[in-house]
């Protein structure tokens, strides 16, 4: 069993039980789909192939629709649970097509689509088993597109790579590239958290230490004045 599937199955009861967690998770998916839409539109603009450009644009349209679906469901859950509405879908682009080149970009997209498909399937099964019809229908609709994206990106990847073996090697490289990127991102997050904790610890230490210094100052002054008293 892949780690993504195992993790999703273990966390499903935790992630999808609390309404606040549902809103946050759906909003995260909406942001990811929106970012993917931007990447695919850039790919359609930069690829030299009209056929691939058309496929990328269809993919971008699907991602835009998915982002709207996830956001709308998150807003519905927030509204019926008296929770704050999720924020707008503002995303930044990493210019992945320019950075990676088309072969590596396709490998990355294919890897991401395959991973999302496996993850969403575990969600779909959990919703079905727990009578969550609306959420099951949402992921069922998204999964139909995810499977199609997974197939077409692999077909293009095989074509551009020259062979299926080369395509699989490109997907493996995409896996390690994404793992490194996630590690760097988590490192920045951890560093920020550590800086925040250390700053507060320093503040607490100073808060306690300053009164101690003030209490010690009179004795220090008396000790410094004692030689003058002897002269």
Note down, in words, how this protein is organized:
This protein has helices at 3-15, 19-46, 50-80, 96-100, 102-129, 133-161, 164-230. By secondary structure, the chain is mainly α. It has one domain: Ferritin, CATH 1.20.1260.10. Helix 3 (50-80) runs antiparallel to helix 6 and helix 5 (102-129) packs across helix 7 (164-230).
Fold topology:
Layout: H1 3-15, H2 19-46, H3 50-80, H4 96-100, H5 102-129, H6 133-161, H7 164-230
Helix pairs in contact: 1-5, 2-3, 3-6, 5-6, 5-7, 6-7
What characteristics describe this protein?
single chain, mainly alpha, Ferritin, 7 helices, 87% helix, 0% strand
| Average predicted local confidence, pLDDT | 85
What count of domains describes the coordinates? 1
Rg, alpha carbons = 27 Å
The end-to-end distance, rounded to whole angstroms, is: 86 Å
Structural class by sheet pairing and helices: mainly alpha
Query: How can the largest sheet be summarized?
Result: none
Looking at the overall shape, the CATH architecture is: Up-down Bundle
Helix content: over 70%
Order of helices and strands: HHHHHHH
Which spans have pLDDT < 50 for at least 5 consecutive residues? none
CATH topology annotation: Ferritin
By DSSP (H or I, 4+ residues per run), the number of helices equals: 7
CATH level 4 superfamily? Ferritin, core subunit, four-helix bundle
Number of strands: 0
**General shape:** globular
Oligomer: single chain
Strand portion: under 5%
Classified by CATH, the class is Mainly Alpha
């Amino acid at each position: 069993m892949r780690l993504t599937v195992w993790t999703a199955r273990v966390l499903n009861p935790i992630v999808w039980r609390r309404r606040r967690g549902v809103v946050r998770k759906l909003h995260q998916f909406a942001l990811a789909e929106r970012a993917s839409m931007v990447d695919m539109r850039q790919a359609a603009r930069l690829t030299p192939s009209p056929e691939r450009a058309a496929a990328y644009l269809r993919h971008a349209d699907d991602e835009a629709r998915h982002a709207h679906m996830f956001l709308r469901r998150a807003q519905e859950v927030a509204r019926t649970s008296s929770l704050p509405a999720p924020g707008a879908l503002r995303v930044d682009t990493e210019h992945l097509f320019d950075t990676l080149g088309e072969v590596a970009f396709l490998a990355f997209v294919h890897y991401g689509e395959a991973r999302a498909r496996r993850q969403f399937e575990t969600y779909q099964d959990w919703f079905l088993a727990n009578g969550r019809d609306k959420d099951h229908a949402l992921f069922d609709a998204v999964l139909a597109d995810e499977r199609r994206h997974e197939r077409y990106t692999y077909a293009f990847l095989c074509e551009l790579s020259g062979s299926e073996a080369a395509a699989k090697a490109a997907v493996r490289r995409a896996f390690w590239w994404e793992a490194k990127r996630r590690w760097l991102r988590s490192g920045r997050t951890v560093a920020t958290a550590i800086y925040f904790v250390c700053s507060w610890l320093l503040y607490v230490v100073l808060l306690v230490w300053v009164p101690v210094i003030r209490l010690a100052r009179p004795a220090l002054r008396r000790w410094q004045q004692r030689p003058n008293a002897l002269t």
